[in-house]
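Changelog note: in this version the structure field was regenerated for every chain. One regenerated record is shown below for reference.
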Amino acid sequence: MAEIKDKKLFVDGYAYVRSRSAKGRIYWDCRLVRLKECTARAITNEPRAGEDVVVFKGPETSEHQHPPNRKEVQAIQLAATLKRKVAEHPGQPPTQIMRDKLACVSTAVLSQLPEREALSKTMRRERRTSP
């Protein structure tokens, strides 16, 4: 199942970042393309509100130079959730938001997250830049 969140595409344990869009399609690069560790790309439709994401080209048609990592994808999604929560609740300290959200997360996902201090710093930065 494909899912788009915060300019990122998640499909079958792979994470992609938005590259460009044209003619109703969005072109995605594997998140490791910029590190020159993978050359895989994906193409999806540009879904409207309530519409499903249709993957025209994805993991099954493009070769990744690494195996899928579902725990890493969950960690990326969790970090995005933490950033969104800190923007929605500016009065709540980042450490309290992390404590609440990370309490029920598996150790496999926790091991894929950045260090707590780096995550907290990212959350504070998000709070400063959000309106």
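Spot check on this record: The domain at 2-57 is CATH 2.20.25.240 (N-terminal domain of TfIIb). The first helix runs from residue 70 to 88.
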